[in-house]
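Q: Here's a chain of 712 amino acids. Please give me its 3D structure as tokens.
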Amino acid sequence: MTHAEQIASQLNVKPSQVTAVITLLDEGNTVPFIARYRKEMTGSLDDEQIRIIADELIRLRGLDERRVSILASIEEQGKLTDELRDSINAAVSMTALEDLYAPYKKKRRTRAMVAREKGLEPLAELILKQTSDSPEEAAKQFINEQVPNIEEALQGARDIVAEIISENANVRAATREKALKFGKVRVERIKDSVDEKAVYESYYEFEGNVNRLLPHQILAITRGEKEGVLRVHVDVPERDWLNAIQVEFEEDIISPFAEQLELAIRDSAERLLLPAIERDVRREKGEVADNHAIQVFATNLRALLGQAPLANHVVLGLDPGFRTGCKVAVVDATGKLLDTGVIYPHEPKNDWKGSINTLQDMINRHHVTLITIGNGTASRETERLAAELVRAQHAAPLQTKYLIVNEAGASVYSASSLARAEFPDLDVTIRGAVSIARRAQDPLAELVKIDPKSIGVGMYQHDVDQTALTHALDGVVESVVNSVGVDVNTASSALLTHVAGIGPKLATNIVTHRDSNGPFKSRTALKKVAGLGPKAFEQAAGFMRIRNGANPLEESAIHPESYAIAESILARAALTVDSSIPDRIAALESLTAKTSLEELAKELNCGVPTLKDILEQLVRPGRDPRADTPAPILRSDVLKAEDLLTGMQLKGTVRNVVDFGAFVDIGVKQDGLLHKSQIPFGTVLKVGDIIDVEIQKIEAERGRIGLGWVKA
């Protein structure tokens, strides 16, 4: 099968679709560009499918490179047979390839290698052939200075046989398959190990089937092992490994060499095969767990970045703290910094009244309409301060409210080179408050400034493959940024970096050009940016927005290459690019009622998918997909943990989704857990979802709140 056929089978799409994507990728096109502007070629494959194709293509090509390397190595050794070549060419996974290569791989000095150097390989062949010779008589022929006696000769021959058995590709594959199906994982606590908070208590004496282990269990066990708390074993039933060996190396019970083969089999299994299979099983299950955890993180990150922005708010951001005080930053509706300060409402200063007065003054001077509070240390204590402020303003015209925001990564941002460039004269601690203020206004624009791994919506993110995690999360950020689009005249270099075809260097060049020459008046003007060539312009232009520019089409996601088609559609509907949206809606509905999309696409010489996208943009230019997500809950009063009662119903915001349920912010210090058993079948929760929940269980001493689902 070709690469396209293999991937098409996996995705259940046509090989021609995959072939088109591969061609486009090889031509240097980006995933967002292909997904949005080459639908006719790909059969409208979406962003996620195209990313899978891109990743699988890299994997398969890596497999091909390894295949070529292995074939060259074995051929160089003069051991490449036609049968072996066919087997290597037919291998569809790296594991299968490495199994075939195992006997020919250069390795450290082994017992079998030493035995071969002593000339004992012919004796090993007699054991494998199960001849009718006497083992002792046969062994006598190999006694010399290096092999002083019969027992050492037979031991050396068995060492060779044991290695041959353990390196047999069929034996390894069969044993591994059985281990993955029927093996058991045993976990025990290492004596005298330190586990102060009993984090791994569930695994002190644990046993489970390999094929039933859940990803979060695998990750927890692996972490406990790395921290020196747990010891892990994989047990494979004897019948499974013994049968796998005997299929390939059959004993002849009437042969005098039967006992020698039996001894070699036992030695091979215990010393070589089973330890290797244990490593394989641990690696394979670990990869599955990693991939699952990465997918959970990616899904949560996509939802977090896709949260609705709170536009038109002047925001006061509070980064809470005790001894060092609460840092304050006020930003206007565009995110521009207006004011900063530090208040000390908590211990040890306890300047509650002074803090209230300082905040009230800032609110009055800057017409603040929203207070955002980071959810870290002292957040709920600071929430009481905000609630008191809001209550005092009950009759005020502004009606300021407050919102708890996830502050994960704020400290990372505040110490970054990006933050230093943005606020060179600002104290590092105040920069965090600015980030907290801006997160409510536009979560995407602010969070792209932070390494996604620092945002904290994952599970065991520091334990998984960091390269794979970074790749997946970067793909999510790129996908969301291009789905939303960016205003090229206001976007930061951090946001522009993720636009298709741009990257860090071009993003910096765009901002530098904008600062030197003023706002871009058109998308074409982007071509004047240093280093932004035709290919980069083609990839990026459709995702860039020019507000109030010369051509209204440039506020939309219509690509410049399709302007002529858009103008032809408008002309047929007796409209222009300056026509109002209500006029466009009525006229275009009339046009499509008279002429089918297929006929119109044929007349305009474009595909139906492209035509549909253009029509959508003409009636809703530059529509932000985040507008469809629920707005955050703005609060005006604080809810204390002691206020909670079993049976109480509340609205909450989903903060994190994990294997065993979802953590929900219900307005108290500790997020509640909505266990997966409480979530209706078929319901998929996302970070940022607003849901109705009921308090089911309160464990104050453990800081745990159990939640139940409330039907809408």
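Q: Can you summarize the key feature?
A: Residues 513-628 form a domain with the DNA polymerase; domain 1 fold (CATH 1.10.150.310).
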